[in-house]
């Protein structure tokens, strides 16, 4: 009887060891095959940003996080740029989903209906309706200070706002067809 009991304990112990070992191996293998993302520090306001040369990267894509009010640019699974943006206000939300950068772009626009303009716009939905662009300006191209101070909060009419410097780099470097995911 004691021998049977001892055998059962040994079998249970070995089974437990096998389960623990399998779990550890599974976790290590999973970590090894999962892509590792490198975090890019967001520069302080007074610090000069370093923009990546996209010619050095392939498989570029853009992620806009509405919750975090951040735009992250990837090369494959590697983060190559991250910055603060403003997405749509509650009554005029930024569309969510998967899009592609469209052909329409320009260095300035002004909308008389909203009395706001912006520099360096790039369309991502409905061919000029939903854009990436700078913080708003007046009709003369002067940045509207109150609007610029809202960067990092959901306050746009549905577009994705960013600093003028970020918008200029985006306009000059992001190609038509680059995939944009917004969630």
Automatic annotation (TrEMBL):
InterPro entries reported for this sequence: LD-transpeptidase (IPR050979), LD_TPept_cat_dom (IPR005490), Transpep_catalytic_dom (IPR038063)
EC number of this enzyme: 3.4.16.4
Pfam families xref list: YkuD
Gene3D superfamilies per record: L,D-transpeptidase catalytic domain-like
Top-level EC class: hydrolase
PROSITE patterns per record: LD_TPASE (PS52029)
Active site positions: 133, 159
Pathway assigned in UniProt: Cell wall biogenesis; peptidoglycan biosynthesis
GO biological process: cell wall organization; peptidoglycan-protein cross-linking; regulation of cell shape
SUPFAM superfamilies: L,D-transpeptidase catalytic domain-like
Superkingdom of origin: Bacteria
Domain L,D-TPase catalytic: 60-183
Keywords (A to Z) from UniProt: Carboxypeptidase, Cell shape, Cell wall biogenesis/degradation, Hydrolase, Lipoprotein, Peptidoglycan synthesis, Protease, Transferase
Gene Ontology terms, MF aspect: peptidoglycan L,D-transpeptidase activity; serine-type D-Ala-D-Ala carboxypeptidase activity; transferase activity
Any one of the GO CC terms: extracellular region
Record's protein name: D-alanyl-D-alanine carboxypeptidase
Organism this protein belongs to: Streptococcus gallolyticus
UniProt lineage: Bacteria, Bacillati, Bacillota, Bacilli, Lactobacillales
